[in-house]
Batch of 2 targets.
Target 1
Amino acid sequence: MSANFGRYEILRRLGIEQLPALVAAEEPVDEVSDGPFPNIPLTTMPVPGRRCPACALKGQTVWVIPGKRCPQCGTPVR
Ligand SMILES: [Zn+2]
Protein backbone atom coordinates (compact mmCIF):
# COMPACT_ATOMS: atom_id res chain seq x y z
CA MET A 1 0.00 0.00 0.00
CA SER A 2 2.87 2.32 0.82
CA ALA A 3 4.39 1.82 -2.64
CA ASN A 4 1.16 2.79 -4.39
CA PHE A 5 0.78 5.77 -2.10
CA GLY A 6 4.32 6.90 -2.91
CA ARG A 7 3.65 6.62 -6.64
CA TYR A 8 0.43 8.56 -6.25
CA GLU A 9 2.23 11.26 -4.30
CA ILE A 10 4.81 11.67 -7.10
CA LEU A 11 2.09 11.91 -9.75
CA ARG A 12 0.13 14.36 -7.64
CA ARG A 13 3.14 16.62 -7.16
CA LEU A 14 3.74 16.60 -10.90
CA GLY A 15 0.10 17.51 -11.48
CA ILE A 16 -0.60 14.34 -13.44
CA GLU A 17 -3.92 12.61 -12.98
CA GLN A 18 -3.74 8.87 -12.48
CA LEU A 19 -5.68 7.50 -15.40
CA PRO A 20 -7.46 4.11 -15.28
CA ALA A 21 -5.37 2.95 -18.25
CA LEU A 22 -2.22 3.62 -16.27
CA VAL A 23 -3.53 1.56 -13.38
CA ALA A 24 -4.40 -1.31 -15.73
CA ALA A 25 -0.90 -1.21 -17.21
CA GLU A 26 0.50 -1.79 -13.73
CA GLU A 27 -1.27 -5.15 -13.46
CA PRO A 28 1.03 -8.20 -13.49
CA VAL A 29 0.87 -10.38 -16.62
CA ASP A 30 2.46 -13.53 -15.22
CA GLU A 31 -0.39 -15.80 -16.33
CA VAL A 32 0.16 -15.11 -20.04
CA SER A 33 3.96 -15.09 -19.92
CA ASP A 34 4.18 -18.30 -22.02
CA GLY A 35 2.30 -16.85 -25.02
CA PRO A 36 3.89 -15.55 -28.23
CA PHE A 37 3.05 -11.98 -27.22
CA PRO A 38 3.47 -11.90 -23.43
CA ASN A 39 3.04 -8.13 -23.20
CA ILE A 40 -0.28 -8.06 -25.07
CA PRO A 41 -3.46 -8.88 -23.12
CA LEU A 42 -5.50 -11.75 -24.56
CA THR A 43 -8.45 -9.42 -25.12
CA THR A 44 -6.46 -7.18 -27.49
CA MET A 45 -6.52 -7.96 -31.20
CA PRO A 46 -3.03 -7.84 -32.77
CA VAL A 47 -4.48 -6.58 -36.07
CA PRO A 48 -6.68 -3.51 -36.56
CA GLY A 49 -10.29 -4.45 -37.11
CA ARG A 50 -13.86 -3.55 -36.38
CA ARG A 51 -16.75 -5.63 -35.15
CA CYS A 52 -19.39 -6.28 -37.78
CA PRO A 53 -22.48 -4.35 -36.53
CA ALA A 54 -24.94 -6.74 -38.22
CA CYS A 55 -23.37 -9.82 -36.65
CA ALA A 56 -23.08 -8.00 -33.31
CA LEU A 57 -26.87 -7.60 -33.32
CA LYS A 58 -27.14 -11.39 -33.71
CA GLY A 59 -24.82 -11.90 -30.76
CA GLN A 60 -21.83 -12.86 -32.87
CA THR A 61 -18.45 -11.17 -32.74
CA VAL A 62 -16.98 -11.04 -36.24
CA TRP A 63 -13.85 -8.96 -36.81
CA VAL A 64 -13.65 -7.24 -40.18
CA ILE A 65 -10.81 -5.24 -41.64
CA PRO A 66 -12.07 -1.66 -42.19
CA GLY A 67 -13.03 -1.20 -45.86
CA LYS A 68 -13.71 -4.94 -46.32
CA ARG A 69 -16.93 -6.91 -46.14
CA CYS A 70 -17.94 -9.15 -43.27
CA PRO A 71 -17.07 -12.78 -44.16
CA GLN A 72 -20.22 -13.99 -42.36
CA CYS A 73 -22.98 -11.73 -43.71
CA GLY A 74 -21.27 -9.57 -46.35
CA THR A 75 -21.97 -6.27 -44.65
CA PRO A 76 -19.44 -3.60 -45.64
CA VAL A 77 -17.51 -2.37 -42.62
CA ARG A 78 -15.70 0.96 -42.63
ZN1 LIG B 1 -21.41 -9.67 -40.31
Target 2
Amino acid sequence: MLELPPSRSGRQPLEIASQVARAAGGILLSSFSRTEKKTRPKGRSNLVTEADYLSEQAILRELRAEFPSCGFLSEESEAVVSDSPFTWVVDPMDGSNNFSFGVPFFSVNLALLRREEVVLGVTYDPVRDELFYGLKGQGAFVGGKPLRVSARTELKDALVGFDMGYDMERGREMLEAARKLWTAVFSFRIMGSAALVLAYVASGRLDLYLHRRLYPWDILAGRLLVEEAGGLATDWEGRPVTRNTHQVVAGNPALPPADYRLAVRTPSGRGVYSFCMCPGGEVMNAASGEGQAPVNGMSVRARNSGFGNSGIVASIAPAEFGEAGAREDGPLAGIGFQEAIERRTFDRGGGGYGVPAANLLAFVRGMELPPSPGRLLAPRVVPDDLRGILPGAVEEDIRFGLLRFGGAMRGFLTREATLYAVESRTSSPVRIERVNYASVTHKGLYPVGEGAGHAGGIVSSAVDGIRAALRILETYSS
Ligand SMILES: Cc1cc2nc3c(=O)[nH]c(=O)nc-3n(C[C@H](O)[C@H](O)[C@H](O)COP(=O)(O)OP(=O)(O)OC[C@H]3O[C@@H](n4cnc5c(N)ncnc54)[C@H](O)[C@@H]3O)c2cc1C
Protein backbone atom coordinates (compact mmCIF):
# COMPACT_ATOMS: atom_id res chain seq x y z
CA MET A 1 0.00 0.00 0.00
CA LEU A 2 1.41 3.36 -1.04
CA GLU A 3 1.98 5.67 1.90
CA LEU A 4 1.18 9.33 1.19
CA PRO A 5 1.00 12.35 3.50
CA PRO A 6 -2.45 13.31 4.82
CA SER A 7 -3.73 16.67 3.64
CA ARG A 8 -5.55 19.25 5.78
CA SER A 9 -8.62 19.19 3.52
CA GLY A 10 -8.68 15.39 3.49
CA ARG A 11 -8.28 15.32 -0.32
CA GLN A 12 -5.79 12.96 -1.99
CA PRO A 13 -2.30 14.40 -2.68
CA LEU A 14 -2.65 13.57 -6.40
CA GLU A 15 -5.89 15.53 -6.66
CA ILE A 16 -4.32 18.48 -4.87
CA ALA A 17 -1.12 18.36 -6.94
CA SER A 18 -3.10 18.18 -10.19
CA GLN A 19 -5.24 21.14 -9.22
CA VAL A 20 -2.22 23.18 -8.07
CA ALA A 21 -0.32 22.40 -11.29
CA ARG A 22 -3.31 23.45 -13.42
CA ALA A 23 -3.67 26.71 -11.47
CA ALA A 24 0.05 27.48 -11.85
CA GLY A 25 -0.16 26.62 -15.55
CA GLY A 26 -2.99 29.13 -15.86
CA ILE A 27 -0.73 31.82 -14.38
CA LEU A 28 1.99 30.96 -16.92
CA LEU A 29 -0.44 30.97 -19.81
CA SER A 30 -1.87 34.39 -18.99
CA SER A 31 1.66 35.89 -18.95
CA PHE A 32 2.64 33.94 -22.07
CA SER A 33 0.07 35.71 -24.19
CA ARG A 34 1.69 39.06 -23.35
CA THR A 35 4.29 40.07 -25.95
CA GLU A 36 6.58 41.73 -23.37
CA LYS A 37 7.63 39.33 -20.63
CA LYS A 38 9.52 40.42 -17.53
CA THR A 39 12.73 38.40 -17.54
CA ARG A 40 16.14 38.56 -15.90
CA PRO A 41 19.23 36.46 -16.61
CA LYS A 42 20.05 33.76 -14.02
CA GLY A 43 23.23 32.67 -15.79
CA ARG A 44 24.48 32.08 -19.32
CA SER A 45 21.55 31.12 -21.61
CA ASN A 46 19.33 30.99 -18.53
CA LEU A 47 16.40 33.34 -18.05
CA VAL A 48 13.98 33.54 -15.17
CA THR A 49 10.67 35.31 -15.65
CA GLU A 50 8.23 37.03 -13.37
CA ALA A 51 5.84 34.21 -14.26
CA ASP A 52 8.25 31.67 -12.68
CA TYR A 53 7.95 33.50 -9.35
CA LEU A 54 4.18 33.98 -9.55
CA SER A 55 3.69 30.32 -10.41
CA GLU A 56 5.98 29.22 -7.57
CA GLN A 57 4.25 31.43 -5.01
CA ALA A 58 0.85 30.00 -5.95
CA ILE A 59 2.12 26.40 -5.78
CA LEU A 60 3.93 26.77 -2.47
CA ARG A 61 1.04 28.65 -0.87
CA GLU A 62 -1.40 25.84 -1.70
CA LEU A 63 0.90 22.94 -0.89
CA ARG A 64 2.08 24.43 2.41
CA ALA A 65 -1.52 25.03 3.44
CA GLU A 66 -2.44 21.41 2.68
CA PHE A 67 0.80 19.74 3.83
CA PRO A 68 2.34 22.01 6.51
CA SER A 69 4.67 19.34 7.90
CA CYS A 70 6.25 18.29 4.55
CA GLY A 71 9.66 19.44 3.33
CA PHE A 72 9.87 21.59 0.18
CA LEU A 73 12.50 21.78 -2.55
CA SER A 74 11.66 24.39 -5.16
CA GLU A 75 13.63 25.87 -8.03
CA GLU A 76 13.35 29.55 -7.14
CA SER A 77 13.21 29.34 -3.31
CA GLU A 78 15.22 28.18 -0.31
CA ALA A 79 14.69 24.52 0.50
CA VAL A 80 12.51 23.78 3.56
CA VAL A 81 13.75 20.75 5.48
CA SER A 82 11.35 18.96 7.81
CA ASP A 83 11.13 15.86 10.02
CA SER A 84 8.45 14.46 7.74
CA PRO A 85 9.57 11.67 5.40
CA PHE A 86 7.76 13.56 2.61
CA THR A 87 9.25 16.33 0.45
CA TRP A 88 7.51 18.17 -2.37
CA VAL A 89 9.86 18.96 -5.25
CA VAL A 90 8.55 21.89 -7.27
CA ASP A 91 9.44 23.30 -10.66
CA PRO A 92 7.09 26.27 -11.22
CA MET A 93 8.12 26.44 -14.88
CA ASP A 94 10.45 24.17 -16.80
CA GLY A 95 11.25 25.74 -20.17
CA SER A 96 11.55 29.39 -19.09
CA ASN A 97 13.73 30.19 -22.14
CA ASN A 98 11.08 28.81 -24.50
CA PHE A 99 8.48 30.83 -22.61
CA SER A 100 10.54 34.05 -22.84
CA PHE A 101 11.09 33.65 -26.58
CA GLY A 102 7.45 32.82 -27.22
CA VAL A 103 7.98 29.11 -27.94
CA PRO A 104 4.92 27.27 -26.58
CA PHE A 105 6.70 24.37 -24.88
CA PHE A 106 7.01 24.62 -21.11
CA SER A 107 5.54 22.87 -18.10
CA VAL A 108 4.77 22.91 -14.38
CA ASN A 109 6.19 19.97 -12.44
CA LEU A 110 5.52 18.55 -9.01
CA ALA A 111 7.05 15.44 -7.50
CA LEU A 112 6.52 13.99 -4.05
CA LEU A 113 9.36 12.11 -2.41
CA ARG A 114 8.96 9.66 0.44
CA ARG A 115 12.52 9.77 1.72
CA GLU A 116 14.41 9.01 -1.53
CA GLU A 117 11.55 7.34 -3.39
CA VAL A 118 9.43 9.31 -5.86
CA VAL A 119 5.83 8.37 -5.02
CA LEU A 120 3.88 10.94 -7.05
CA GLY A 121 4.63 12.94 -10.18
CA VAL A 122 2.65 15.57 -12.08
CA THR A 123 3.70 17.40 -15.26
CA TYR A 124 1.32 19.94 -16.71
CA ASP A 125 1.56 21.49 -20.18
CA PRO A 126 -0.74 24.55 -20.03
CA VAL A 127 -0.47 25.24 -23.76
CA ARG A 128 -1.99 21.90 -24.78
CA ASP A 129 -3.85 21.53 -21.47
CA GLU A 130 -2.24 18.12 -20.97
CA LEU A 131 -1.82 16.84 -17.43
CA PHE A 132 0.51 13.85 -17.07
CA TYR A 133 0.32 12.19 -13.66
CA GLY A 134 1.39 9.03 -11.91
CA LEU A 135 1.60 7.27 -8.57
CA LYS A 136 4.30 4.80 -7.63
CA GLY A 137 3.19 1.29 -8.52
CA GLN A 138 -0.17 2.49 -9.82
CA GLY A 139 0.72 3.61 -13.33
CA ALA A 140 1.01 6.92 -15.16
CA PHE A 141 -1.76 8.56 -17.15
CA VAL A 142 -2.79 11.46 -19.34
CA GLY A 143 -6.48 12.30 -19.66
CA GLY A 144 -7.31 9.04 -17.85
CA LYS A 145 -5.43 6.94 -20.45
CA PRO A 146 -2.42 4.89 -19.31
CA LEU A 147 0.98 6.06 -20.54
CA ARG A 148 3.25 3.55 -22.28
CA VAL A 149 6.81 4.10 -23.53
CA SER A 150 7.42 3.38 -27.22
CA ALA A 151 7.92 -0.20 -28.33
CA ARG A 152 10.55 0.54 -30.97
CA THR A 153 13.53 -1.78 -30.71
CA GLU A 154 15.91 -0.30 -33.28
CA LEU A 155 18.03 2.77 -32.62
CA LYS A 156 17.71 3.69 -36.32
CA ASP A 157 13.95 4.19 -35.79
CA ALA A 158 14.33 6.16 -32.55
CA LEU A 159 13.36 9.82 -32.15
CA VAL A 160 15.79 11.14 -29.55
CA GLY A 161 15.43 14.36 -27.56
CA PHE A 162 18.21 16.19 -25.78
CA ASP A 163 19.04 19.58 -24.31
CA MET A 164 22.33 21.31 -23.53
CA GLY A 165 21.34 23.05 -20.27
CA TYR A 166 23.27 25.98 -18.84
CA ASP A 167 26.66 24.44 -18.10
CA MET A 168 28.96 25.11 -21.07
CA GLU A 169 31.15 22.05 -20.58
CA ARG A 170 28.27 19.64 -20.01
CA GLY A 171 26.45 21.18 -22.99
CA ARG A 172 29.51 20.58 -25.16
CA GLU A 173 29.65 16.96 -23.97
CA MET A 174 25.99 16.56 -24.85
CA LEU A 175 26.54 17.92 -28.36
CA GLU A 176 29.54 15.64 -28.78
CA ALA A 177 27.47 12.61 -27.71
CA ALA A 178 24.71 13.68 -30.11
CA ARG A 179 27.25 14.03 -32.93
CA LYS A 180 28.37 10.43 -32.34
CA LEU A 181 24.79 9.15 -32.23
CA TRP A 182 23.63 11.22 -35.18
CA THR A 183 23.94 8.64 -37.94
CA ALA A 184 22.61 5.83 -35.74
CA VAL A 185 19.20 7.31 -34.83
CA PHE A 186 16.11 8.36 -36.80
CA SER A 187 16.31 12.01 -35.74
CA PHE A 188 16.93 14.42 -32.88
CA ARG A 189 14.79 17.04 -31.16
CA ILE A 190 16.13 19.83 -28.94
CA MET A 191 13.09 20.62 -26.85
CA GLY A 192 13.86 23.13 -24.09
CA SER A 193 11.81 21.54 -21.29
CA ALA A 194 13.42 18.37 -19.94
CA ALA A 195 10.45 17.69 -17.68
CA LEU A 196 7.90 17.89 -20.47
CA VAL A 197 10.03 15.70 -22.75
CA LEU A 198 10.23 13.07 -20.02
CA ALA A 199 6.42 13.03 -20.06
CA TYR A 200 6.65 12.65 -23.85
CA VAL A 201 9.03 9.70 -23.40
CA ALA A 202 6.52 8.18 -20.97
CA SER A 203 3.83 8.70 -23.65
CA GLY A 204 5.92 7.00 -26.37
CA ARG A 205 6.14 10.22 -28.42
CA LEU A 206 9.94 10.19 -28.09
CA ASP A 207 12.04 7.06 -27.64
CA LEU A 208 14.92 8.47 -25.67
CA TYR A 209 15.89 11.66 -23.85
CA LEU A 210 19.41 12.71 -22.82
CA HIS A 211 20.68 15.55 -20.63
CA ARG A 212 24.08 16.09 -19.02
CA ARG A 213 23.22 18.78 -16.47
CA LEU A 214 19.92 19.45 -14.79
CA TYR A 215 18.27 19.56 -11.36
CA PRO A 216 16.00 17.32 -9.27
CA TRP A 217 12.92 19.48 -9.94
CA ASP A 218 13.51 18.95 -13.69
CA ILE A 219 13.58 15.15 -13.54
CA LEU A 220 11.90 13.58 -10.52
CA ALA A 221 8.29 13.84 -11.75
CA GLY A 222 9.44 12.63 -15.19
CA ARG A 223 11.34 9.73 -13.68
CA LEU A 224 8.16 8.44 -12.07
CA LEU A 225 6.11 8.93 -15.26
CA VAL A 226 8.71 7.11 -17.38
CA GLU A 227 9.08 4.22 -14.95
CA GLU A 228 5.34 3.81 -14.45
CA ALA A 229 4.99 3.78 -18.25
CA GLY A 230 7.38 0.82 -18.47
CA GLY A 231 10.54 2.83 -19.23
CA LEU A 232 13.86 3.44 -17.54
CA ALA A 233 15.35 6.69 -16.23
CA THR A 234 18.94 6.60 -15.01
CA ASP A 235 22.05 8.75 -14.92
CA TRP A 236 24.70 8.29 -17.64
CA GLU A 237 26.27 5.42 -15.72
CA GLY A 238 22.97 3.55 -15.42
CA ARG A 239 22.35 4.41 -11.74
CA PRO A 240 18.81 5.29 -10.65
CA VAL A 241 17.80 8.96 -10.74
CA THR A 242 17.63 10.45 -7.22
CA ARG A 243 17.32 13.96 -5.81
CA ASN A 244 21.14 14.19 -6.13
CA THR A 245 21.23 13.23 -9.80
CA HIS A 246 22.14 15.95 -12.30
CA GLN A 247 21.82 14.07 -15.57
CA VAL A 248 19.39 11.73 -17.19
CA VAL A 249 19.03 9.06 -19.82
CA ALA A 250 15.39 8.08 -20.08
CA GLY A 251 13.66 5.88 -22.55
CA ASN A 252 12.31 2.69 -23.79
CA PRO A 253 14.43 -0.18 -22.40
CA ALA A 254 13.84 -2.27 -25.54
CA LEU A 255 16.36 -0.08 -27.39
CA PRO A 256 19.73 -1.85 -27.65
CA PRO A 257 22.83 -0.72 -25.74
CA ALA A 258 25.36 1.37 -27.65
CA ASP A 259 27.79 -0.74 -29.60
CA TYR A 260 30.71 -0.24 -31.94
CA ARG A 261 33.00 -2.25 -34.11
CA LEU A 262 36.24 -0.88 -35.50
CA ALA A 263 38.43 -2.60 -38.06
CA VAL A 264 41.50 -1.71 -40.13
CA ARG A 265 43.83 -3.50 -42.49
CA THR A 266 47.44 -2.66 -41.66
CA PRO A 267 50.09 -1.96 -44.36
CA SER A 268 51.37 -5.51 -43.78
CA GLY A 269 47.92 -6.83 -44.75
CA ARG A 270 46.92 -7.95 -41.24
CA GLY A 271 43.35 -7.38 -40.06
CA VAL A 272 43.09 -5.61 -36.68
CA TYR A 273 39.63 -5.18 -35.20
CA SER A 274 37.71 -4.55 -32.00
CA PHE A 275 35.94 -7.64 -30.76
CA CYS A 276 32.94 -8.18 -28.47
CA MET A 277 32.44 -4.60 -27.32
CA CYS A 278 30.60 -4.99 -24.01
CA PRO A 279 28.87 -1.87 -22.60
CA GLY A 280 29.12 -1.98 -18.82
CA GLY A 281 31.62 -4.77 -19.32
CA GLU A 282 34.49 -6.14 -17.31
CA VAL A 283 37.80 -7.73 -18.21
CA MET A 284 38.13 -11.06 -16.41
CA ASN A 285 41.09 -13.20 -15.58
CA ALA A 286 40.22 -16.30 -17.62
CA ALA A 287 43.17 -18.56 -16.75
CA SER A 288 42.25 -22.21 -17.26
CA GLY A 289 45.61 -23.92 -17.02
CA GLU A 290 48.68 -23.77 -14.83
CA GLY A 291 51.15 -21.08 -15.84
CA GLN A 292 48.86 -19.53 -18.47
CA ALA A 293 47.27 -16.12 -18.20
CA PRO A 294 44.57 -15.24 -20.73
CA VAL A 295 41.94 -12.57 -20.08
CA ASN A 296 38.47 -12.25 -21.55
CA GLY A 297 35.75 -9.60 -21.53
CA MET A 298 32.15 -9.92 -20.43
CA SER A 299 29.29 -7.91 -18.99
CA VAL A 300 26.78 -8.77 -16.35
CA ARG A 301 23.10 -8.15 -16.99
CA ALA A 302 22.83 -4.71 -15.34
CA ARG A 303 25.49 -3.15 -17.59
CA ASN A 304 25.98 -0.29 -15.12
CA SER A 305 29.56 -0.89 -14.01
CA GLY A 306 30.71 2.43 -15.43
CA PHE A 307 33.14 0.62 -17.73
CA GLY A 308 32.98 -0.92 -21.17
CA ASN A 309 35.46 -3.31 -22.70
CA SER A 310 36.47 -4.70 -26.02
CA GLY A 311 39.08 -7.16 -27.24
CA ILE A 312 41.57 -5.82 -29.78
CA VAL A 313 42.31 -8.67 -32.14
CA ALA A 314 44.96 -9.18 -34.79
CA SER A 315 44.73 -11.97 -37.36
CA ILE A 316 47.56 -14.49 -37.38
CA ALA A 317 48.79 -16.57 -40.32
CA PRO A 318 50.02 -20.14 -39.61
CA ALA A 319 53.44 -19.05 -40.93
CA GLU A 320 53.76 -16.80 -37.86
CA PHE A 321 53.21 -19.54 -35.27
CA GLY A 322 56.95 -20.02 -34.72
CA GLU A 323 57.48 -16.33 -33.98
CA ALA A 324 56.14 -16.51 -30.44
CA GLY A 325 58.98 -18.90 -29.59
CA ALA A 326 56.75 -21.96 -29.48
CA ARG A 327 58.44 -25.31 -29.77
CA GLU A 328 55.50 -27.25 -31.23
CA ASP A 329 55.22 -27.89 -34.92
CA GLY A 330 52.58 -29.62 -37.02
CA PRO A 331 48.83 -29.49 -36.42
CA LEU A 332 49.17 -28.22 -32.84
CA ALA A 333 51.56 -25.37 -33.72
CA GLY A 334 48.73 -22.85 -33.21
CA ILE A 335 48.19 -24.06 -29.64
CA GLY A 336 51.94 -23.86 -29.07
CA PHE A 337 51.86 -20.24 -30.29
CA GLN A 338 48.96 -19.40 -27.97
CA GLU A 339 50.55 -21.10 -24.95
CA ALA A 340 53.92 -19.41 -25.51
CA ILE A 341 52.21 -16.00 -25.39
CA GLU A 342 50.14 -16.94 -22.34
CA ARG A 343 53.22 -18.24 -20.46
CA ARG A 344 55.07 -14.99 -21.22
CA THR A 345 52.07 -13.02 -19.95
CA PHE A 346 52.00 -15.18 -16.82
CA ASP A 347 55.66 -14.32 -16.11
CA ARG A 348 55.09 -10.60 -16.72
CA GLY A 349 52.19 -10.72 -14.25
CA GLY A 350 54.62 -11.84 -11.55
CA GLY A 351 54.02 -15.57 -11.89
CA GLY A 352 50.92 -15.57 -9.67
CA TYR A 353 48.16 -14.94 -12.22
CA GLY A 354 48.54 -11.16 -11.94
CA VAL A 355 47.32 -9.40 -15.10
CA PRO A 356 49.82 -7.11 -16.87
CA ALA A 357 48.20 -3.80 -17.80
CA ALA A 358 49.23 -0.57 -19.49
CA ASN A 359 47.59 2.78 -19.96
CA LEU A 360 46.32 2.86 -23.56
CA LEU A 361 48.20 6.10 -24.33
CA ALA A 362 51.40 4.72 -22.80
CA PHE A 363 51.14 1.72 -25.14
CA VAL A 364 50.37 3.58 -28.37
CA ARG A 365 52.32 6.81 -27.85
CA GLY A 366 54.93 5.82 -25.28
CA MET A 367 53.60 8.34 -22.74
CA GLU A 368 54.47 7.88 -19.07
CA LEU A 369 51.06 7.09 -17.64
CA PRO A 370 49.94 4.43 -15.17
CA PRO A 371 46.99 2.11 -15.92
CA SER A 372 43.89 4.06 -14.97
CA PRO A 373 42.57 3.30 -11.50
CA GLY A 374 39.13 1.94 -10.87
CA ARG A 375 39.29 -1.68 -12.00
CA LEU A 376 40.09 -4.42 -9.55
CA LEU A 377 40.93 -7.44 -11.62
CA ALA A 378 41.53 -10.61 -9.63
CA PRO A 379 43.95 -11.44 -8.23
CA ARG A 380 45.85 -8.22 -9.08
CA VAL A 381 46.78 -5.82 -11.88
CA VAL A 382 50.52 -5.51 -12.57
CA PRO A 383 51.57 -2.25 -14.32
CA ASP A 384 53.61 -3.15 -17.42
CA ASP A 385 54.45 -1.58 -20.79
CA LEU A 386 53.11 -4.71 -22.57
CA ARG A 387 56.03 -4.60 -25.00
CA GLY A 388 57.47 -7.89 -26.17
CA ILE A 389 54.55 -10.08 -25.06
CA LEU A 390 53.29 -10.51 -28.62
CA PRO A 391 55.56 -11.09 -31.64
CA GLY A 392 57.03 -7.69 -32.73
CA ALA A 393 55.08 -7.41 -36.01
CA VAL A 394 51.77 -8.21 -34.27
CA GLU A 395 52.43 -5.67 -31.52
CA GLU A 396 53.27 -2.98 -34.10
CA ASP A 397 50.14 -3.72 -36.12
CA ILE A 398 47.95 -3.54 -33.00
CA ARG A 399 49.52 -0.15 -32.22
CA PHE A 400 48.80 0.96 -35.80
CA GLY A 401 45.20 -0.27 -35.47
CA LEU A 402 44.63 1.53 -32.16
CA LEU A 403 45.89 4.81 -33.63
CA ARG A 404 43.54 4.40 -36.60
CA PHE A 405 40.62 3.62 -34.26
CA GLY A 406 41.44 6.84 -32.41
CA GLY A 407 41.19 8.73 -35.71
CA ALA A 408 37.87 7.07 -36.55
CA MET A 409 36.20 7.51 -33.16
CA ARG A 410 36.76 10.58 -31.05
CA GLY A 411 37.34 9.69 -27.41
CA PHE A 412 38.63 6.20 -28.20
CA LEU A 413 42.26 7.11 -27.45
CA THR A 414 41.94 8.30 -23.89
CA ARG A 415 44.13 8.20 -20.83
CA GLU A 416 41.17 6.67 -18.98
CA ALA A 417 41.50 3.45 -20.99
CA THR A 418 43.61 0.49 -19.91
CA LEU A 419 44.95 -2.37 -22.01
CA TYR A 420 45.10 -5.77 -20.27
CA ALA A 421 47.20 -8.65 -21.60
CA VAL A 422 46.35 -10.87 -23.20
CA GLU A 423 43.11 -11.94 -24.93
CA SER A 424 44.63 -14.95 -26.64
CA ARG A 425 41.56 -17.16 -27.04
CA THR A 426 39.24 -15.36 -29.41
CA SER A 427 39.22 -18.39 -31.68
CA SER A 428 40.57 -21.89 -31.53
CA PRO A 429 43.94 -22.37 -33.21
CA VAL A 430 42.99 -25.90 -34.29
CA ARG A 431 39.95 -27.33 -36.00
CA ILE A 432 39.10 -31.01 -35.62
CA GLU A 433 38.06 -32.38 -38.98
CA ARG A 434 34.62 -33.98 -39.12
CA VAL A 435 32.09 -35.29 -41.61
CA ASN A 436 28.42 -34.92 -40.70
CA TYR A 437 29.57 -33.68 -37.26
CA ALA A 438 31.44 -36.96 -36.64
CA SER A 439 35.20 -37.28 -36.21
CA VAL A 440 36.90 -38.64 -39.33
CA THR A 441 39.35 -40.72 -37.29
CA HIS A 442 37.38 -41.80 -34.19
CA LYS A 443 34.08 -43.46 -34.96
CA GLY A 444 31.26 -42.39 -32.65
CA LEU A 445 33.05 -39.22 -31.51
CA TYR A 446 31.33 -35.89 -32.27
CA PRO A 447 33.71 -32.97 -31.60
CA VAL A 448 31.61 -29.81 -31.17
CA GLY A 449 31.88 -26.23 -30.00
CA GLU A 450 34.70 -23.81 -29.54
CA GLY A 451 37.45 -26.20 -28.50
CA ALA A 452 36.84 -28.31 -31.60
CA GLY A 453 37.31 -25.19 -33.73
CA HIS A 454 33.72 -25.14 -34.98
CA ALA A 455 32.34 -22.19 -33.01
CA GLY A 456 33.57 -18.97 -31.48
CA GLY A 457 30.98 -17.87 -28.94
CA ILE A 458 28.09 -18.86 -26.71
CA VAL A 459 25.37 -19.02 -29.36
CA SER A 460 27.45 -20.54 -32.16
CA SER A 461 28.72 -23.24 -29.75
CA ALA A 462 25.19 -24.02 -28.60
CA VAL A 463 23.89 -24.20 -32.17
CA ASP A 464 26.79 -26.44 -33.18
CA GLY A 465 26.02 -28.76 -30.24
CA ILE A 466 22.30 -28.90 -31.03
CA ARG A 467 22.95 -29.71 -34.68
CA ALA A 468 25.40 -32.44 -33.74
CA ALA A 469 22.89 -33.89 -31.26
CA LEU A 470 20.17 -33.95 -33.94
CA ARG A 471 22.57 -35.69 -36.30
CA ILE A 472 23.36 -38.31 -33.62
CA LEU A 473 19.63 -38.92 -33.07
CA GLU A 474 19.11 -39.28 -36.79
CA THR A 475 22.05 -41.68 -37.17
CA TYR A 476 21.27 -43.97 -34.25
CA SER A 477 17.48 -44.03 -34.48
CA SER A 478 17.44 -45.28 -38.08
C1 LIG B 1 35.21 -14.54 -19.51
C2 LIG B 1 34.60 -14.99 -20.80
C3 LIG B 1 33.69 -14.16 -21.43
C4 LIG B 1 33.07 -14.55 -22.61
N1 LIG B 1 32.16 -13.72 -23.16
C5 LIG B 1 31.47 -14.13 -24.24
C6 LIG B 1 30.44 -13.35 -24.77
O1 LIG B 1 30.11 -12.27 -24.28
N2 LIG B 1 29.77 -13.79 -25.87
C7 LIG B 1 30.08 -14.99 -26.46
O2 LIG B 1 29.42 -15.37 -27.44
N3 LIG B 1 31.08 -15.74 -25.98
C8 LIG B 1 31.78 -15.37 -24.88
N4 LIG B 1 32.77 -16.16 -24.38
C9 LIG B 1 33.12 -17.39 -25.10
C10 LIG B 1 32.11 -18.49 -24.78
O3 LIG B 1 32.01 -18.64 -23.38
C11 LIG B 1 32.58 -19.77 -25.43
O4 LIG B 1 32.76 -19.56 -26.84
C12 LIG B 1 31.57 -20.90 -25.25
O5 LIG B 1 31.25 -21.08 -23.88
C13 LIG B 1 32.13 -22.19 -25.80
O6 LIG B 1 31.19 -23.22 -25.59
P1 LIG B 1 31.60 -24.73 -25.66
O7 LIG B 1 30.37 -25.50 -25.31
O8 LIG B 1 32.26 -25.01 -26.96
O9 LIG B 1 32.73 -24.90 -24.53
P2 LIG B 1 32.64 -24.65 -22.93
O10 LIG B 1 31.52 -23.70 -22.60
O11 LIG B 1 34.01 -24.31 -22.54
O12 LIG B 1 32.23 -26.08 -22.44
C14 LIG B 1 33.15 -27.14 -22.38
C15 LIG B 1 32.77 -28.00 -21.17
O13 LIG B 1 33.52 -29.20 -21.17
C16 LIG B 1 33.95 -29.46 -19.85
N5 LIG B 1 35.16 -30.30 -19.92
C17 LIG B 1 36.40 -29.97 -20.31
N6 LIG B 1 37.22 -31.02 -20.24
C18 LIG B 1 36.47 -32.05 -19.83
C19 LIG B 1 36.74 -33.43 -19.59
N7 LIG B 1 37.95 -33.97 -19.79
N8 LIG B 1 35.73 -34.20 -19.17
C20 LIG B 1 34.49 -33.72 -18.97
N9 LIG B 1 34.18 -32.43 -19.19
C21 LIG B 1 35.16 -31.61 -19.61
C22 LIG B 1 34.23 -28.09 -19.28
O14 LIG B 1 34.20 -28.14 -17.86
C23 LIG B 1 33.07 -27.29 -19.86
O15 LIG B 1 31.91 -27.35 -19.04
C24 LIG B 1 33.42 -15.79 -23.20
C25 LIG B 1 34.35 -16.62 -22.58
C26 LIG B 1 34.94 -16.24 -21.39
C27 LIG B 1 35.93 -17.16 -20.73
